Structure to design on (360 residues):
């Protein structure tokens, strides 16, 4: 296996590092039409103390984005790009402040400022034609690894798939553990579990390798500190650990690949709009035959943190909906190849995927 990955160019880490954001982006202010776009999670819209710390200057655009409903869409990126270009021309850069949704919107928007047409036509690997503009990620909820990954996941008219290429990767990230302290308990669990599942999947498949395992084992240890070991729970030390776990988990899968849970999860999200991390948590307990140790430990973390996960959802699903989920899931050939091997099509049937969905 040959992989040659671009990493995030610069990373600031530590409590209070958000205060340095203005200083960090200053040198880029003279580029293009000399203004920045700040894309900020709607949670912060009425948080006056936080808003006062956003280093926006006159002429910059500050846009609050609602993220509690559907996941980022291709049409949303196209609309933002067209509106900002019409209003003020090409910005100096895009700063995303929020969770995985905002990270992906910032990454995709950076690319779409310089690539013509709709983002729909770039959903896939290396389809983007030109580098995007300078883009910075400031995560405020940890787990997806979107701050470090080379993909910007979008839901389009026919598929949920990322704009994936070297230019997607952030130029700069600012990891300030103070910013994740206010995450609601359920989101804290679901999104953290995305890291855990990334690592279990990246380390259990045909593409696993020492690079991916080194990051993965450390990220799993950190997750266990946050969700299982003595001192577990939402607290400042664990916020530091979770932020690093998310980053390492993202690197673990960058050097390998996700597997069965993510393939099924994309189908579920596509058909029902179920949010990524929550969808993974619904699916993962049913994957004991693929990841026995990971599932046993996951179940312990669910119990210890007293998290409720819905059961028997599939009783309300129509055959048509399940068939559509299977279509989306089956098309994720890179995940199946990693999880089951080159001959995955001989090992997997549509009926098997249906049986797994029926367990949920
Ligand atoms: P999110 O960005 O969807 O946010 C979840 C919720 O948390 C929102 O309601 C938001 O308002 C709230 N929130 C965010 N920060 C907060 C804070 N500090 N305090 C209180 N509330 C806060 O969450 P997510 O789980 O990080 O991201 C999910 C998205 O990430 C999905 O769209 C998924 O497709 C994507 N994803 C991307 C990658 C990648 O590599 N690009 C990987 C996994 C998932
Ligand atoms: Zn994930």
């Amino acid at each position: 296996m040959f992989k040659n990955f671009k990493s995030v160019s610069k990373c600031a880490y530590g409590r209070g590092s958000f205060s340095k954001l203005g200083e960090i982006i200053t040198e880029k202010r003279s580029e293009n039409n000399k203004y920045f776009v700040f894309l900020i999670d709607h949670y912060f819209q009425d948080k006056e103390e936080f808003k006062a710390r956003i280093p926006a200057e006159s002429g910059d655009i500050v846009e609050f984005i609602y993220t509690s409903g559907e996941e980022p869409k291709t049409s949303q990126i196209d609309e933002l790009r067209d509106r900002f270009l019409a209003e003020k021309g090409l910005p100096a850069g895009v700063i995303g402040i929020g969770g995985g949704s905002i990270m992906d919107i910032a990454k995709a928007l950076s690319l779409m400022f310089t690539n013509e047409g709709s983002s729909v036509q770039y959903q896939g690997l290396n389809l983007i034609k030109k580098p995007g503009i300078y883009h910075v990620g400031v995560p405020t909820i940890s787990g997806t690894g979107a701050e470090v990954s080379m993909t910007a996941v979008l839901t389009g008219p026919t598929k949920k798939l990322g704009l994936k290429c070297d230019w997607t990767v952030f130029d700069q990230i600012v990891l300030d553990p103070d910013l994740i302290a206010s995450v609601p308990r359920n989101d804290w669990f679901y999104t953290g579990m995305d890291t855990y599942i990334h690592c279990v999947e990246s380390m259990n498949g045909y593409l696993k390798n020492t690079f991916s395992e080194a990051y993965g084992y450390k990220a799993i240890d950190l997750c266990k500190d946050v969700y299982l070991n003595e001192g577990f729970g939402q607290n400042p030390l664990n916020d530091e650990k979770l932020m690093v776990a998310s980053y390492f988990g993202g690197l673990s899968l960058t050097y390998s690949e996700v597997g069965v849970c993510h393939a099924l999860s994309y189908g579920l999200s596509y058909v029902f709009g179920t949010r990524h991390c929550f969808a993974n948590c619904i699916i993962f307990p049913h994957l004991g035959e693929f990841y026995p140790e990971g599932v046993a430990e996951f179940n312990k973390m669910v119990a210890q943190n007293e998290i409720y996960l819905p059961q028997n959802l599939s009783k309300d699903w129509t055959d048509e909906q399940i068939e559509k989920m299977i279509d989306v899931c089956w098309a994720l050939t890179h995940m199946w190849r990693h999880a089951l091997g080159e001959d995955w099509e001989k090992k997997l049937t549509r009926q098997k995927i249906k049986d797994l969905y029926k367990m949920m």
Summary: The longest strand covers residues 36-41.
